[in-house]
Design brief:
Elements: E1 2-7, H1 19-24, H2 26-39, H3 43-49, H4 52-55, H5 58-78, E2 89-92, H6 96-103, H7 109-129, E3 132-138, H8 142-153, E4 158-165, E5 168-174, H9 175-184, E6 192-195, H10 208-219, E7 230-231, H11 243-252, H12 260-269, E8 272-278, H13 283-291, E9 297-300, H14 303-313
Parallel strand pairs: 1-2, 1-8, 2-7, 8-9
Antiparallel strand pairs: 3-5, 3-6, 4-5
Helix pairs in contact: 2-5, 3-5, 5-6, 5-7, 6-7, 7-10, 8-9, 10-11
Length: about 325
C-alpha cells in the first residue's frame, strides 16, 4: 500500500499557523527558529500572530507556508510513534513542490527556504512590473474555459493555468482580460467567476522575469538525484527523473499551467492509497474530494490532527 505526502501552495496561509504545534513540540520550535535566522527576520511571529495583510503578501506567505509544512513534517520525522510513516511519493501544489522536494530529501531545508524566499520576491517584482490577476472559474470544463479565455483575451494574455479539480479551473492574465472573463463567464455556463486575491498573473508569461531570477538561483543550488522517494511534477503530472529536470520544472512552473488534478489521478492510478496533507489549511483535502470520492486524505494542519495520528500509531 503506497503513501503520498501532499503539500499546499500559496493561499493556504492563515494567522496562528504552526503556533500550537511549535508550543507542543520542541523540534518544531527549532525549525521556526532556524527559519528566522535563514530569512533574516521574525517569520515565526508573522505566522503565529500576523497581521494578516503582512502574512498574505507574496513575499511572506511563500516562505511562511514552506516553513509551516516543514515544521509539521518534522513531527513525523522525530516522533517515535510516527517513525514508520514514510512516503513513497511526494507532491506539492505550485509552491508546495518545494516542500515535496524537501520531504523527499532532494533539497536541504536552508536551500529550499532561500529559494522560496527568492521566488516570492521575484514573483512580487514581476507582478509589480505588470498588471495581472487571476480568476477562479467554477463549473466549466477545460474546453469551455479555453473558449472563454479566447473571447475575453481580446489580444491580451489570458489562459487557464490551474487545473485543480473537476469544475475548478483558475485563469490568469492581464487585469482587463480577467475583468472581461468575469463578465462573460455566465454566458459559457459558469456557476461563478471569482477574482483571486493575488499580486499578479501567476503561471503565465507575465512571470517570465521571475522565472529568469529563479533559474539563476537554481543553477547554484544543490539538488540531489531522485532515489527512493518519487516526486511528481506540476507541469506534466509525471515523476522527476533527475536533478536537471527538477530545476527545469521549478523554473517552468512560474510561466506554465499547474496540472494538479492530473497529478492526483496519476498517483491514484499508480496504486497510492494513503494520502496525507501536510501544512496549513485543507485546500488539497478539499480538492481530492472532487477528484476522487473514494480517496481519503488525512489532513495534518493542526495540533488536534497530529495528536490523533500519533495516538493511533502508538
Amino acid at each position: 500500500m503506497k503513501t503520498a505526502f501532499l503539500f499546499p501552495g500559496q493561499g493556504a496561509q492563515v494567522v496562528t499557523m504552526g503556533k500550537e504545534i511549535a508550543e507542543a513540540f520542541p523540534a518544531v520550535a527549532e525549525i521556526f527558529e532556524k527559519a528566522n535566522s535563514i530569512v533574516g527576520f521574525d517569520l515565526s511571529r508573522i505566522c503565529f500572530e500576523g497581521p494578516p495583510e503582512q502574512l498574505n503578501t507574496t513575499t511572506i506567505s511563500q516562505p511562511a507556508i514552506f516553513v509551516t509544512s516543514a515544521a509539521i513534517l518534522e513531527v513525523l520525522k522525530t516522533n517515535p510513534s510516527a517513525q514508520s510513516l514514510r512516503p513513497d511519493v511526494t507532491a506539492g501544489l505550485s509552491l508546495g513542490e518545494y516542500s515535496a522536494l524537501y520531504a523527499a530529501g532532494l533539497i536541504s531545508f536552508e536551500d529550499a527556504l532561500l529559494l522560496v524566499q527568492k521566488r516570492g520576491q521575484a514573483m512580487q517584482a514581476a507582478a509589480d512590473a505588470t498588471d495581472g490577476g487571476m480568476v477562479g472559474i467554477i463549473g466549466l470544463d477545460e474546453e469551455k474555459v479555453n473558449q472563454l479565455c479566447a473571447e475575453a483575451s481580446d489580444g491580451e494574455i489570458l489562459a487557464a493555468v490551474n487545473f485543480n479539480c473537476p469544475g475548478q479551473i483558475v485563469i490568469s492574465g492581464s487585469k482587463p482580460a480577467c475583468g472581461r472573463a468575469q463578465e462573460l463567464a455566465a454566458k459559457y455556463g459558469a456557476i461563478k467567476a471569482v477574482r483571486l486575491e493575488v499580486a499578479g498573473a501567476f503561471h503565465t508569461q507575465m512571470m517570465s522575469g521571475a522565472a529568469d531570477v529563479l533559474k539563476e538561483a537554481l543553477a547554484s543550488c544543490d539538488i540531489s538525484e531522485p532515489a527512493d522517494i518519487k516526486v511528481i511534477a506540476n507541469i506534466n503530472a509525471d515523476y522527476y527523473e533527475n536533478a536537471e529536470k527538477i530545476a527545469q520544472g521549478l523554473t517552468k512552473q512560474l510561466t506554465c499551467p499547474i496540472l494538479w488534478q492530473k497529478c492526483m489521478q496519476k498517483l491514484i492510478a499508480d496504486g497510492v492509497e494513503n494520502f496525507f496533507e501536510i501544512g496549513p489549511g485543507r485546500v488539497l483535502t478539499g480538492l481530492m474530494k472532487r477528484i476522487s470520492r473514494k480517496t481519503k486524505v488525512i489532513n495534518l494542519s493542526n495540533i488536534q490532527a497530529i495528536n490523533e495520528l500519533l495516538k493511533v500509531r502508538v
